[in-house]
Amino acid sequence: MTERSLLEFFDTLRSAQQANRAKFPVWHDIIERIDRCFVRAGKNLVKLQSPMTGAFLLRCQYAFKTAAGMALAGLAGQVVEVVEAFVMQRSVLEYAGYAVLICKTPSLEGVFLGRHSSIKAMKTQKDVFTIGAVKVAVRRCDTMLADNFVEDYERSINFGGHPNPHGALSAMVPDERDGLNSLTVFAISSEPKIVVHALKCTAQVGLTALCVLQHVFKEKFELLGIRQEIDALKNTGML
After folding, report:
1. Helices (H), strands (E): how many in the chain?
2. Residue 136 half-sphere exposure toward CB, CA atoms < 13 A
3. pTM of structure
4. Rounded to 5 degrees, what are φ and ψ at 215?
5. Which residues contact 36 (CB under 8 A, 6 or more apart)?
6. End-to-end distance of the chain based on CA atoms, in angstroms?
């Protein structure tokens, strides 16, 4: 695919996304339901004790949309941006995690916003906002949710969230043409199981993020019917 222009690449992805909606309607429907929960919450961010929790919810929503778009980029088994989808899944979880971290310790909002005020402030922000601290904050809310968060986060890392052999080599195949040993790297994949895996993982990450954010916006999620939709999504048996 390296010979294609950027515009051609975008056109291919768009066509692929539209085709995949028809090929995997169940997963598309689940992902759309999760997205609607994010949208509903994002439209009702008023009277927040911490403005940054609202900002993180919105960033979480947009990261989820991006991950969904990448996972859906498949055309009848022709295209899927598998590795890149997991990069965005990691962001979905981190934004939700930062929101709960600040919610449970409001003074951390100033630490986060002060990151670039000095070298010392940046070091403090880096030391405080770690994935380890996020995991602890989520576990204090719900032990089972914390287990799901850790599982989803580690999977996002292993499949592409960080450069690693599993993610980097998952889209490579040996190429021995003309007697030369080399590797062909694919930006896309033709394996339907890979597409389904990307879609399922995106949906699981989105649902986990909503469950985390539920502990930040508990009353809003209840009032807006988001908690009920979260329960309904769990009861599908797909996630």
Report:
1. 12, 2
2. 10
3. 0.86
4. -80, -10
5. 229
6. 33
